[in-house]
Automatic annotation (TrEMBL):
<dbReference type="InterPro" id="IPR015365">
    <property type="entry name" value="Elong-fact-P_C"/>
</dbReference>
<comment type="similarity">
    <text>Belongs to the elongation factor P family.</text>
</comment>
<dbReference type="Pfam" id="PF09285">
    <property type="entry name" value="Elong-fact-P_C"/>
</dbReference>
<protein>
    <recommendedName>
        <fullName>Elongation factor P</fullName>
    </recommendedName>
</protein>
<keyword id="KW-0648">Protein biosynthesis</keyword>
<keyword id="KW-0251">Elongation factor</keyword>
<dbReference type="InterPro" id="IPR013185">
    <property type="entry name" value="Transl_elong_KOW-like"/>
</dbReference>
<dbReference type="GO" id="GO:0043043">
    <property type="term" value="P:peptide biosynthetic process"/>
</dbReference>
<feature type="domain" description="Translation elongation factor P/YeiP central">
    <location>
        <begin position="67"/>
        <end position="121"/>
    </location>
</feature>
<keyword id="KW-0963">Cytoplasm</keyword>
<dbReference type="InterPro" id="IPR001059">
    <property type="entry name" value="Transl_elong_P/YeiP_cen"/>
</dbReference>
<dbReference type="GO" id="GO:0005829">
    <property type="term" value="C:cytosol"/>
</dbReference>
<dbReference type="GO" id="GO:0003746">
    <property type="term" value="F:translation elongation factor activity"/>
</dbReference>
<dbReference type="InterPro" id="IPR012340">
    <property type="entry name" value="NA-bd_OB-fold"/>
</dbReference>
<dbReference type="InterPro" id="IPR014722">
    <property type="entry name" value="Rib_uL2_dom2"/>
</dbReference>
<dbReference type="Pfam" id="PF01132">
    <property type="entry name" value="EFP"/>
</dbReference>
<dbReference type="InterPro" id="IPR008991">
    <property type="entry name" value="Translation_prot_SH3-like_sf"/>
</dbReference>
Length: 185
C-alpha cells in the first residue's frame, strides 16, 4: 500500500480492480476543509484517461509492473510480433492493443513491453523516435524555417506538421507523446 501523498508521475497503482498510471497530480490544501490530491490517471488496459480525487493520506495499492525489453519484429496479419532480447521468446500483440504505438514502431526497434503478472498491458515507447519522411510537398525557394508548416507522411504512415524546409528522405525526430515534430535527426 502507498499513500496518495507519495504520488509521482509514472507511478502505477491499482484502483477499483484496474491498473492505472499517474499522469499528473496536484496536492490541494483549501483554506476551509481537508486537503486532497487531484490526479489524472491513465488506464493501462484501455488507454482511457480519467481524473480522480483522493483524500489526503488515503492508501492505494501499488501495482507491480514489469518492463521487458523487446524488439519489434514484424506484422503478422492482425498481430504484431515482438521478441525478448535475452530469452528470444516471441510475443504477439493484437492491433487493437497497440493501435497508437504503431505510428512510431519500425522493424527491429527496441521497446519496453509493460507486463502485469502474465498479462501484457501494452508498449512503452521511448520519448522520441527518428522516422524518415516518405512523402511531402517540396519546399519552395523563399520559404523560411519559422514561416509556417506543411503536412508530411512518415515511413510508418503517421502524418505530422513540419517546417517548409523538410524534404522527402529527411530523417526527423518525432515526440511520441503528442506526435509532434521536434527537429531533423
Amino acid at each position: 500500500m502507498i499513500s496518495v501523498n507519495e504520488f509521482k508521475n509514472g507511478l502505477t497503482i491499482e484502483v477499483d480492480g484496474d491498473i492505472w498510471r499517474v499522469v499528473e497530480f496536484q496536492h490541494v490544501k483549501p483554506g476551509k476543509g481537508s486537503a486532497f490530491v487531484r490526479s489524472k490517471l491513465k488506464n493501462l488496459r484501455t488507454g482511457a484517461v480519467q481524473e480522480k480525487t483522493f483524500r489526503a493520506g488515503e492508501k492505494v495499492e501499488q501495482a507491480q509492473i514489469d518492463n521487458r525489453k523487446m524488439q519489434y519484429l514484424y506484422a503478422d496479419g492482425d498481430n504484431h510480433v515482438f521478441m525478448d532480447t535475452t530469452t528470444y521468446e516471441q510475443l504477439e500483440l493484437p492491433v487493437e492493443q497497440i493501435k497508437n504505438e504503431l505510428n512510431y514502431l519500425k522493424e527491429n526497434m527496441l521497446v519496453n513491453i509493460i507486463m502485469y503478472g502474465n498479462e501484457t498491458l501494452g508498449v512503452d515507447l521511448p520519448n522520441t523516435v527518428d522516422l524518415k519522411v516518405a512523402a511531402t510537398e517540396p519546399g519552395i525557394k523563399g520559404d523560411t524555417a519559422s514561416g509556417g508548416s506543411k503536412p508530411a507522411t512518415l515511413e510508418t504512415g503517421l502524418v505530422v506538421q513540419v517546417p517548409f524546409f523538410v524534404n522527402e528522405g529527411d530523417v526527423l525526430t518525432i515526440n511520441t507523446q503528442d506526435g509532434s515534430y521536434i527537429s531533423r535527426a
